[in-house]
Amino acid sequence: MFRSLTVVRRFSISRSSLNTPKSSCVAGTVLNLKVKKAGDEPVALEDSDYPDWLWDSLDKGKKDKTLKKNDFMKWRRKQLNKVNTAKIKEKNFLSEL
Fold it and tell me: What Pfam families has UniProt attached to this entry (predicted)?
């Protein structure tokens, strides 16, 4: 029973929907950002009206890949910092026991 459900679920997602960015707001929605005291509020645009880099700005995997490609030493320092931070947190946790 479970096997048949996973097969149906796998084929129910189209490849084009995976690559297409989706914003959290429908086009034309007032965003209520209160940027200016006077004037109209900003309105959400169609997804195609926004630049491509905007959809990648929150994707840590893509940012990490581009950083590794452009500036390897900075990427390596970030990786070492993550490892050191994890070690410190582990030692602090073990010392509290």
Answer: Ribosomal_L37
Give CA–CA dist 42/27, Å, rounded: 11
Find the angle CA(54)-CA(58)-CA(59) to the nearest 5 degrees: 105
Q: What is the pLDDT of residues 9-41, one digit of tens each?
A: 554 554 445 566 677 888 889 888 887 788 888
d(CA 77, CA 83): 10
Instruction: Name, in order, each residue with C-beta under 8 angstroms of 44's C-beta and a sequence gap of 6 or more.
Output: 23, 25, 26, 27, 28, 29, 30, 31
Spatial distance between the Cα atoms of 74 and 49, rounded to a whole number of angstroms? 33
